[in-house]
Amino acid sequence: MAWLSLIIAGILEVIWAFSMKQSEGFTKIGASIITIVTVVASFILLSYSMKSLPLGTAYTIWTGIGAVGAFVVGIVFLGEPAGILRILAAIMIIGGLLLMKFSSAA
Question: Which end of the chain, C or N, has fewer beta carbons within 10 A?
Answer without folding.
Answer: N
